Amino acid sequence: MANKSKFIDYIDEALEKSKETALSHLFFIHQGIPYPITMCTSETFQALDTFEARSDDIVLASYPKCGSNWILHIINELIFAESKKKYEYPEFPILECGDPEKYEILVIFRNPKDTAVSFFHFHNDVPDIPSYGSWDEFFRQFMKGQVSWGSYFDFAINWNKHLDDENVKFILYEDLKENLAAGIKQIAEFFGFSLTGEQIQTISAQSTFQAMRAKSQETHGAVGPFLFRKGEVGDWKNLFSETQNQEMDAKFKECLAGTSLGAKLKYESYCQA
Ligand SMILES: Nc1ncnc2c1ncn2[C@@H]1O[C@H](COP(=O)(O)OS(=O)(=O)O)[C@@H](OP(=O)(O)O)[C@H]1O
Question: What topology is assigned to 4-271 in CATH?
Answer without folding.
Answer: Rossmann fold (3.40.50)
